[in-house]
Amino acid sequence: MNKSTVLFVFLISTFLLTAQTQQTEVESLKKVSDFPIGSSLRFIPFMNDAPLQKIQQHHFNSYTAGSDMKMYQISPRPNVYYWDRVDSIVSYTKKNNQRLFGHTLIWHSATPWWVEKKAKKDPVWLDKFMKEYIQKYVSRYKGKVHGWDVVNEGFNTKGAGYRTESIWYKTMGETYIEKAFRYAHEADPDAVLFYNDFNIERDTLKFNSMMKMVEDFQRRGVPISGIGFQMHIRMDTPNEVIAHTLKRAADTGLQIHLSEVDIIFNTHDDSKGGGVQLYNELTDAMRMDQAKKYAELVEIYQTTVPKAQQYGITFWGFNDRDTWINRFFKLKDWPCIYDENLKPKPAFYGFLNALKADY
Ligand code: 9MR
Description:
By secondary structure, this protein is of the alpha/beta class. The protein is 46% helix and 16% strand. The protein has a single domain (3-356), classed as Glycosidases (TIM Barrel), CATH 3.20.20. The protein is built from 15 helices and eleven strands. The termini are close together. The model has no long low-confidence stretch (mean pLDDT 95). The site of ligand 9MR has 10 residues, from helix 14.
């Protein structure tokens, strides 16, 4: 089949499948996929939401906690470590045969106030604390957490360079990143260790800064094993640019995780409340366009990242009811594969069909 025939067949089958939605149980994403399919979910509401659990168990074989495994949850006060919730997450994922992905060890936005305060007074302490925190945490869940976002969002929101206003950078300099990887690796040599960031699929200055660090780590034997592309993209994020950055990242030989996928119609300036409402309602034409964009993303992933490096695709919340986008950017958008009523959208079928296609 040539490319336009494939597209035609895809659109017709997506349309037909959408028309018969809800009549029968939809096909399971994880069953048709060669690589793990995951979603982030906030654990407490999730544990009290039976319909959501049913869908989660049907489609996903990888789980990422929405916020429950971040530092402000684990160590909200000095010398305190709360493990109970993570233990429950471990039990849930084990019972349901799902991979548990750890998000995230070091993230400027998830650093509790007391750590910032203490680091300012006693800079030497921060390195000791980071080592203790990572090693306690990673060794406690050794063999239970499959992979970790060791450092999240260490580069500037836009353009080149490290995120210099982070307390970690300000106190320890850029070496905090490699130290975090070394500490995590010492605690669990089998865990898959990721550097994770946003906009790296489209902002090539930011991407190049990250690649420079990653390649330097590889040359010097810093134990990095993967790159996480959060992949919070927009309908107009060019496929060619996504393909270019994924290919270059895959050339490192590292695992590649699309770690927080969603696709919006509107736009924003990356800041809290910074949404720009361009579309007020979701039309059928927009639904079909989104199905196509989800399918193209899967195709790009499968064709640019070699099989052995496909760590998986994870949605950042997979339904329009719970998505972070609307809350965070103060927008009304529809970025997910399931809608507000927890029903599959054309985007779901676009994604599903693309997983099933041969490339
Ligand atoms: O969606 C997450 C939200 O529920 C949390 O309150 C917030 C702070 O912990 O983090 C959100 O998740 C972010 C993720 O950890 C990193 N990339 C951006 C995500 C959306 O802000």
